[in-house]
Fold this sequence. Notes:
The structure is a single chain. It is built from 12 helices and 10 strands. Strand 4 (98-101), helix 6 and strand 5 form a beta-alpha-beta unit. It is an alpha/beta fold. The longest helix is centred in the C-terminal third of the chain and has 22 residues, at 251-272. The chain has a single domain (5-300), classed as TIM Barrel. Helices cover 47% and strands 15% of the residues. Residues 81, 136, 174, 204, 226 line the site of zinc ion (ZN).
Amino acid sequence: MLISGHDLLDVAHQNSFAIPAFNVADYHMFNGLIEISEKKNSPVIIAIHPNEVNLLGFDTLRAIRERLHRSPVPASIHWDHGATADQMVAAIQGGFTSVMLDASAEAFDENIAQTGRAVEIAHAVGVSVEGELGTIGKMESADGGIIYTDPSDAVTFVERTGVDSLAVAIGTRHGIYPSNITPKLKLDLLREIKAAVGIPLVLHGGSNNPDDEIGEAARSGVNKINISSDIKVAFFDKVREVLQDTSLREPDAIMPPAVEAMQAVASQKIDLFGAAGKADLYRTPAAYKVDLFGTGKGETY
Ligand SMILES: [Zn+2]
């Protein structure tokens, strides 16, 4: 069932686990991710970056919405790292139930102004908003360029903007770490921010970090962890391997093994985040099991 980001994350916040937000730019990958989420009985967030929206197109977005509507697991479709309010309105019209307007590179007051405006627009139509405070690191920068989130700034930011969730900078970087860098998360800082703001926190750059740190983050206040690189590496490494056989050309011979390799990684993330089986926490049979089409099967919607 497709629900808002707020409703999805609130249960994770109350029960101290994290929901994977898988970045999707392709329908095969999307379908593989919703199937593994259903198999694991896990809530899921389908994250789509504006560049990925361009590749998918709005018609595919509609197909993704339809598939999520009829899924037995709770899901949100999240607009990842949006840049402008105009783009955000188009995304909401396209069917996203959660959006992120990333003004974290702006000065503090400007970040508050832009994010607050996004909240005003999105909340008017029941769509949730993720804000970001601090700077998530980049691989290109020697020190990562990380500006850690300050807990008292976080309180001010959440109060003044009304965001539903907050992406925090506690030591992750976007992408895959080079072999000479060992990421280290500031878990004490994370706990301090969580205690101060009391809303769902989000971890970006969640690929390629040590499992024990990510697992601990999921138990310590992070309720959404963005996974992009790890699933894409698994998918395309397998595509490259399969295509060693140069006679292959049919998608139904090439894609299924790649989807399976991606699902193995997604499944491990679901377990690591404590999300397996948690779809049960959202089910209120009277509300969701309605015999919509008179088939007697009680379709879930
Ligand atoms: Zn990100």
